[in-house]
Design goal:
With 228 residues, this protein is α+β, with helices and mostly antiparallel strands. It has 5 helices and 10 strands; from the N terminus they run αβαβααββββββββα.
């Protein structure tokens, strides 16, 4: 789409029906509450990032989650829509979700290569403006406000983007990231499949780490058997 290549963004109104967006707000709030209790009770440790965390450097103390099953499903289901409105053949890389709270800001940044074409989907809460400015050239900054279910597609590596302090009580955003189909090595953010946590991005990933732990445990069990 020539218009997208020139403007570097496009807004899709009601990309997600309002009832579905409302359902997902309830889902992510419930997950947020359950994970907080898990951490408080010591049921899981805070390094178990597959449950989400409050440790994202961009928004510390704000709950976020990489690769949630539902957001990854949105990544796949909205893939054709993103391709249609961007005019590019894309491969999905990863999804991310944040429950922003009053007073949160998003510092100015551009995205990594895995986010060549990105989309931000407002599920509910405030119509929190996101600001954009072309990293090259003297064009003025502009802002976009999204209602629940609206989607903004943008060139994440070319447009600087940020948000000023949130005035409303909350805003839940899902981020969907894609890259050019030529970048096959970046498919699913180098994970074997969507839905896997970020630990799988490394060579051998979580399986290799878990297998090492299991080998150690088996070794200890054998030592115990020898002592019997």
């Amino acid at each position: 789409m020539l218009n997208f290549n020139k403007k570097k963004y496009h807004v899709v109104k009601r990309a997600l029906p309002r009832p579905m967006a409302s359902f997902l707000v309830d889902y992510f709030f419930l997950k947020h509450q359950v994970v907080a209790k898990f951490f408080r009770d010591g049921f899981i440790t805070r390094d178990r990032l597959e449950w989400g965390s409050w440790a994202d450097p961009q928004n510390q103390s704000t709950y976020s989650c990489y690769g949630d099953f539902i957001s990854e499903t949105l990544l796949l289901r909205l893939h054709p829509l993103i391709e249609k409105h961007s005019g590019h053949k894309l491969i999905p890389t990863y999804s991310y979700m944040r429950i922003y709270k009053k007073g949160d800001v998003l510092e100015t940044h551009i995205d990594r290569a895995e986010c060549e074409v990105s989309a931000t989907l407002n599920l509910g809460g405030g119509k929190w403006p996101v600001f954009f400015k072309d990293k090259d050239g003297d064009k003025k900054a502009f802002s976009i406000s999204l209602s629940a279910g609206d989607l903004a597609i943008y060139k994440g590596c070319e447009l600087q983007h940020w948000r000023e302090a949130l005035e409303e009580e909350y805003c839940i955003q899902v981020f969907l990231h894609y890259t050019n189909e030529a970048n096959q090595h970046l498919r699913f953010d180098t994970r074997e499949m969507p839905g896997l946590p970020s630990a799988y991005k490394q060579s051998g990933g979580w399986f290799k780490y878990s297998q090492l732990n299991m080998d150690i445990l088996r070794g200890k069990d054998k030592d115990k058997d020898k002592d019997k």
